[in-house]
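Lab notebook, design round three. We kept the backbone fixed and only want residue identities now. Task for the bench partner: fill in a sequence for the structure below.
Input structure tokens:
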């Protein structure tokens, strides 16, 4: 699934991969447009190099913006207008983005645990977006409970990837942690989560990076 960012697509051999978990990391205000664009790009017809699928968007932060999605859909319709003879409609694209509102931990857990059932009912879905994964999990005060829940969610997602032709994109957040008397910026969900994702893309306001850790990430391009 193309990200519409050439340097990222080139490094990922075409874009977001089916059968894998790709994570987008960034501070507030970065990366949201890319998520909504992915929900539209997954719908590009097969004869034009797309998957001709649908998207499921699980929203834990209530950041989803239908007006922005509509604007992006209109732009994509115009981009492929001549090649599709007007049959690739923005109105249809918007309807093909299934939306789930998860305002608390219980709703997030229920949504992810029910993904297999949802996929059976909607086999044309080729992209699942969870924005954001840590937002609801952090509501749990007990660290052990948070870790246990995160591992259960990962197990459910891995089972889904083994049985369905779908890509999973999650967003993570950054926070400051005190390590050896110094405050360091790192991803919220920690090392166990890092080992279970396949790709991590860092989106900033002035650069794109790729790599699982802050120290080992590779600069793709400066904006």
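Proposed sequence:
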């Amino acid at each position: 699934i193309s990200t519409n960012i050439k340097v990222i697509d080139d490094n990922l051999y075409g874009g977001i991969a089916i059968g894998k978990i790709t994570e987008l990391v960034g501070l507030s205000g970065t990366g949201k447009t890319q998520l909504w664009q992915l929900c539209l790009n997954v719908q590009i017809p097969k004869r034009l190099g797309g998957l001709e699928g649908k998207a499921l968007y699980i929203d834990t932060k209530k950041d989803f913006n239908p007006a922005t999605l509509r604007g992006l859909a209109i732009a994509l319709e115009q981009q492929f207008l001549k090649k599709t003879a007007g049959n690739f409609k923005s109105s249809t694209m918007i309807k093909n983005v299934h939306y789930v509102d998860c305002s608390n931990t219980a709703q997030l857990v229920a949504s992810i645990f029910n993904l297999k059932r949802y996929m059976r009912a909607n086999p044309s879905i080729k992209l699942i977006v969870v924005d954001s994964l840590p937002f609801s999990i952090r509501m749990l005060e007990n660290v052990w409970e948070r870790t246990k829940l995160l591992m259960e969610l990962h197990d459910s997602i891995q089972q889904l990837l083994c049985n369905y032709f779908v890509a999973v994109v999650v967003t993570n957040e950054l926070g400051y942690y005190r390590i050896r008397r110094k405050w360091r910026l790192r991803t919220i969900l920690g090392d166990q989560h890092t080992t279970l994702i396949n790709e991590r893309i860092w989106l900033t306001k002035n650069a794109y990076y790729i790599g699982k850790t802050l120290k080992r990430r590779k600069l793709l391009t400066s904006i």
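Keep this in mind before ordering anything: The chain has ten helices and ten strands.
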